[in-house]
From TrEMBL, chain A:
It holds the Pfam family TP6A_N. PANTHER family: DNA TOPOISOMERASE 6 SUBUNIT A, MEIOTIC RECOMBINATION PROTEIN SPO11. The active site is at 164 (nucleophile), 164 (o-(5'-phospho-dna)-tyrosine intermediate). Keywords: DNA-binding, Isomerase, Magnesium, Metal-binding, Nucleotide-binding, Nucleus, Topoisomerase. Residues 245-415 form the Topoisomerase 6 subunit A/Spo11 TOPRIM domain. Mg(2+) binds at residues 250, 302. Its EC number is 5.6.2.2. One of its GO terms (cellular component) is nuclear chromosome. Homodimer. Heterotetramer of two TOP6A and two TOP6B subunits. GO terms for biological process: DNA topological change; meiotic DNA double-strand break formation; meiotic DNA double-strand break processing; plant epidermal cell fate specification; reciprocal meiotic recombination. It comes from the Eukaryota. One of its GO terms (molecular function) is DNA binding. This is DNA topoisomerase 6 subunit A.
């Protein structure tokens, strides 16, 4: 007995590495991987010099609606002009009404040339003197006047602040939030130009230096937690980086692992996460990084339909904010992992995979119908595989091979093999 | 109490013995069990599970008998229920037992050992401490929980339940058998009745015999009868026969007719109080033409309850008719019984007269189909067992028209509506009566009502179920009505918010045979698709509800629109004011048109104020409201809901009053 145990220990000692960390021996030295990454970065830089398309280039500006960043003073003027016209209408005895661009699903369009969702030009009239719209109309005027005050005083508030200015009228925050988006559409400006921000959610760590409201931030010196992404993007400027790529992580747990292992020091990169569904600030920040630093973006998400959905929000925008998709989306995000095909390729044991629920499978099948998936044949293939095997796995499934498998073997190997879609 | 003996002989069998056969084979001795014995042992079948439920079921059975009785002579029911609490001393003196002081305290279940006492005192001290602290901090002081008296097994509570009605009464000589013999009754025919098995009052008696040993007291008088029958009896459980203590005729001084039944039972008012009150309330909903008086009398006067459910209409649903069987609802035994009972001689007449939906020509065709052994002239009493099986088979396979619902007596939309309005006082009611449908040869009618708002109604769905016009209170979750209302109806399409609005759902099913699930008459199963789909007919209410909601919106539109005027104009004026200040101060004429600048100037010179804006907007709202009201009127026409008669309760003539006369009317003030 004792001898047997000893032998087993001896065995496990001898090829400990390969058993505990499969595929580790396939890894080339870091220098080789780095050179692969450099070519990727170069390619991205040269590719992105070509001008990005806009709606007007495609001759769609008449049928599609887009908002732009407006200066504070023009927001102020817009609101004043609107208020004057409303007052005139009231004084003329006609009551008043808003023409609100519709943000319904039927009014959305995926433009393959732009690779993002845009809003079509349908709008609805929101009159005051109608039982069904009177509340919303009143909330709209109230929000307008609040935004006007913000623009006068030149301050930022959060959506929550806005809600608390008149809880009695707004009743719950979803109502004031929805109207806030309507107001952006009415005024034709981005939500950030309204000076209303959401609470901080995203974090960034790695080889990035930028200024936040004038203070220089070095994201390599922010500890393990990283720097919270500022809720209003106008504060951010002077981005500098020696990173080779941006790594977008879906989950906080995987982000923490990579940050603690200082993954960005082994392979120069910037690591970003929004902890689940991305908020506006993180999307704006990612876009800014991509545009200014011209780095490739690689995404590490769960191997389930929701992972892909999150990827799509970064890439083509959410339906809710489609009016501002031009500023919120980051083109050309590569799906690094974890992909359904990885489950077998990296021999992830059965017990770490989860069976997809009915709902998951339905979501997966629905995604297959979405244009942004269809335009990428690789994605379609992966998604088909997922729906066929009916298995999903989280990033944490890799922890079966040790907590650091993700940063020490999986990611380097993926990068070495240029295994992204 | 003799039940000890039976449980001694075979406790296992007594538990198992759910079968209705009175015979119980035993290994050695063949014993027989009387129906009374059977029900005494399995009293949960009839709803006597525990003292509390027994009290509830007793009240319920007596009230339902009273209503049936009054309705059978087309008299507007007046039912008086009194529950009187009897403490142990009073009870003991009733049965002639002397109160004994406890000598050996430790013998009793509620004896407090020294250790427990210590614990309790410590706890009380702690409680007082926190109490004092709270008081010092100015917090609300909790009422000290009155030392919960641990109710030992000996501390049962006893109640005298009295139910008096103005019904038919009972023939003097029948009274003993009507109460002292289980499974004997007057309601066995095929007819929509509240009671069915002839069990209710007898079970109350059996329960009283089991728990208190006191007899039941009945006084009854019929119309045109110059005496009152008084009877005091109990039941011989072993022989299932009445045991009469006293049976006599007394003078009827008030010319009263009806019955008054008094029984003393063990019960539990504390836990079943709300159930009993709910029952009375719902009964009042479904029978608005009845007057109920409910009293609870206890030793401590603050617990007394006295509720009067006034009569709101004198329109009574028609008395349900006794009907004949539908061919698809009979089985072999029933055919044999019908053959035994029939006065018809030949097969043709038998088929034609003992069943519904078989006419003469239809009967002839059926007989032809039965085979060469049968002819119209076949004497019905001479049919062999095989021939009866053949008839039964044909009844199963042949097609018959559905029975009509004529024999049923639904509460009626009018009564249902009234009942709902009376008891819940809702903002809105819609009611609907479906046409009769059939389940296993028994016709049934579903009536439904939906109410919104009202007093004492909780948010969300409040479901009220009635079967043959009796409220069902227990087993709500499994019931077909609950399931339908919760799962199969999309309340959103009614513009009703299922979680926030106060919704009342009333469904009443009447049938010659309600397919109850389980032993008690408590719920109707969800697996009967006929009934499930009939219940869903409540969706017929949709147009009514939507119409009513529209009408309500009409009324409230102006209020709703005006509610936000101040908010909206305030916000707009706020922007204008700031703009005008900017415009004036900075002299930085923003690129605005002249007319806009003019408007801003008017704002700064206070020619345009918030009040003016509000006023203008209010005018606009008024105009829109007027236009929409016109539109609504032209669309829906001036047709309104049919006017309803108001029922004014007649007053007793000897009231004192003062008249205030005016040329147009008289104002009468009652004193």
């Amino acid at each position: 007995m004792a001898e047997k145990r000893k032998r087993r220990r001896a065995d496990s000692d001898s090829d400990d590495e390969s058993v505990r960390l499969p595929f580790k021996n396939r890894l080339k030295p870091d220098a080789a991987i780095l050179s692969i990454l450099k070519t990727l970065t170069e390619a991205t830089k040269s590719a992105s010099t070509s001008k990005t398309l806009t709606l007007s280039d495609l001759d769609l500006s008449s049928t599609c609606r887009e908002v732009t960043d407006l200066a504070l003073s023009s927001v102020q003027t817009e609101i004043q002009t609107l208020a004057i016209s409303l007052a005139k209408s009231i004084l003329a005895g006609n009551g008043f009404s808003f023409s609100v661009p519709s943000r319904a699903a039927t009014n959305q369009l995926y433009v393959p040339e732009l690779d993002r969702i845009v809003l079509k030009d349908k709008s609805s009239i929101r009159p005051y003197a109608s039982v069904s719209t009177v509340r919303k109309t009143t909330i709209t005027t109230r929000i307008l006047s609040l935004i006007h005050q913000l623009s006068l005083k030149n301050i930022h508030v959060t959506k929550r602040d806005l809600f608390y200015t008149d809880v009695k009228l707004f009743q719950d925050q979803t109502q004031s939030d929805a109207v806030l988006d309507d107001v952006s559409c009415i005024l034709g400006c981005t939500r950030s130009s309204l000076n209303v921000v959401a609470a901080e959610k995203g974090v960034v760590v790695g080889r990035l230096i930028f200024s936040d409201n004038g203070d220089m931030i070095d994201c390599t010196k922010m500890g393990i937690g990283g720097k919270a992404i500022p809720p209003n993007i106008d504060r951010v400027g002077d981005m500098q980086s020696d990173a080779l790529f941006i790594l977008l992580v879906e989950k906080d747990a995987a982000y923490m692992r990579l940050a603690e292992d200082r993954f960005y020091n082994r392979f120069p990169c910037i690591i970003v996460t929004a902890k689940g569904q991305p908020d506006v600030a993180t999307r704006l920040f990612l876009r800014k990084m991509k545009m200014e630093l011209k780095l490739p973006v690689l995404a590490l998400v769960d191997s389930d339909p929701y992972g892909l959905k999150i990827l799509s929000v970064y890439g083509c925008g959410s339906k809710n904010m489609s009016y501002d998709s031009a500023n919120l989306t980051t083109p050309d995000i590569k799906w690094l992992g974890i992909r359904p095909s990885d489950l077998d390729k990296y021999k992830i044991p059965e017990q770490c995979r989860l069976a997809m629920t009915e709902q998951d499978i339905k979501t997966g099948k629905d995604l297959l119908e979405e244009d942004f998936v269809k335009k990428n044949p690789g994605w379609v293939e992966e998604l088909n595989l997922m729906v066929k095997t009916k298995q999903k796995a989280e990033i944490q499934a890799l922890s079966t091979f040790g907590f650091q498998y993700l940063s020490e073997v999986y990611l380097p190997l993926k990068l070495q093999q240029q295994d992204w879609l | 109490m003799d039940s000890g003996e039976s449980s001694e002989e075979s406790p296992a069998q007594a538990k198992k013995g759910k079968s209705k056969t009175p015979r119980k084979p035993k290994a050695s001795v063949l014993k027989q069990k009387s129906p009374a014995e059977f029900f005494a042992e399995n009293k949960n079948i009839a709803g006597f599970d525990n003292p509390g439920k027994s009290l509830y079921t007793t009240v319920r059975e007596l009230v339902e008998n009273a209503l049936d009785s009054a309705e059978s002579i087309a008299e507007l029911p007046f039912v008086e229920v009194t529950i009187e609490e009897i403490n142990r001393t009073a009870f003991n003196s009733m049965i002639g037992l002397i109160d004994r002081e406890r000598i050996d305290e430790a013998l009793y279940g509620d004896f407090e050992t020294a250790k427990a006492r210590e614990k309790r005192l410590a706890k009380e001290a702690r409680f007082q401490e926190t109490q004092a602290k709270n008081a010092a901090l100015g917090k609300k002081v909790k009422e000290p929980t009155s030392g919960k008296a641990i109710k030992g097994r000996g501390e049962a509570s006893f109640y005298r339940v009295t139910c008096k009605d103005n019904g038919r009464g009972m023939p003097h000589d029948d009274i003993p058998n009507m109460f002292g013999r289980v499974l004997s009754g007057t309601k066995y025919g095929l007819k929509q009745t509240r009671g069915k098995f002839g069990l209710g009052a007898k079970m109350a008696l059996i329960w009283s015999k089991m728990s208190t040993g006191l007899p039941i007291e009945i006084s009854s008088s019929m119309k045109n009868q110059n005496y009152t029958s008084f009877c005091r009896l109990d039941i011989d459980i072993h022989r299932n026969i009445p045991h009469i203590h006293l049976h006599e005729k007394r003078d009827d001084k008030e010319h009263w007719h009806g019955a008054e039944i008094q029984v003393v039972i063990e019960g539990n008012w504390t836990t079943y109080r709300s159930k009993i009150l709910h029952y009375m309330r719902q009964m009042a909903v479904i029978t608005p033409y009845a007057q109920f008086m409910f009293r609870f009398i206890s030793n401590t006067s603050d617990k007394n309850v006295s509720i009067r459910f006034a009569r709101r209409t004198d329109v009574m649903p028609a008395v349900p008719l006794e009907t004949k069987y539908h061919p698809s609802a009979v089985d072999l035994l029933l055919i044999k019984r019908l053959i035994g009972e029939t006065s018809k001689l030949n097969l043709l007449q038998f088929l034609q007269h003992e069943f519904v939906n078989i006419g003469k020509s239809h009967a002839e065709r059926l007989i032809g189909e039965m085979g060469p052994d049968f002819s119209s002239k076949t004497p019905v009493k001479s049919l062999t067992s095989q021939q009866i099986v053949r008839i039964h088979q044909l009844f199963r396979q042949a097609k018959f028209d559905d029975p009509s619902g004529d024999c049923l007596s639904p509460a009626g939309e009018y009564n249902l509506r009234l009942g709902i309005i009376k008891e819940l006082n809702p903002d809105m009611v819609a009611t609907y009566t479906a046409s009769a449908q059939v389940f296993e040869g028994h016709p049934f009618i579903v009536e439904a009502g939906v109410s919104l708002g009202g007093k004492d109604v909780k948010q969300g769905l409040n479901i009220f179920r009635f079967a043959n016009r009796i409220p069902l209170l227990f087993e709500q979750g499994a019931d077909v009505v609950t399931r339908t209302a919760m799962k199969r109806i999309n309340w959103n399409s009614y513009k009703i918010n299922q979680t926030q609005d106060k919704i009342g759902v009333f469904v009443s099913i009447v049938s010659t045979k309600i397919p109850f699930k389980g032993t008690g008459k408590e719920y109707i199963g969800d697996d009967i698709s006929e009934i499930a789909s009939a219940v869903k007919c409540c969706t017929q209410l949709k147009s009514k509800i939507v119409k009513r909601i529209q009408a309500r919106e009409q009324q409230e539109r102006k209020r709703n629109l005006s509610k936000y005027i101040a908010d909206a104009t305030g916000a707009i004026y706020g922007i204008l004011k700031e703009a005008s200040q900017l415009h004036a101060n900075k002299k930085k004429r923003l690129e605005i048109k002249d007319e806009d600048a003019e408007l801003l100037q008017k704002v700064s010179s206070r020619l345009i104020t918030k009040e003016i804006l509000s006023e203008k907007l209010a005018q606009h709202v008024e105009q829109v409201d007027y236009e929409m009201a016109m539109e609504y009127a032209t669309q829906s026409g001036v047709r309104e809901e049919p006017r309803e008669d108001i029922y004014l309760q007649s007053l007793e003539p000897q009231m004192n009053f003062v008249d205030f006369h005016s040329p147009v009317f008289v104002f009468r003030l009652f004193q």
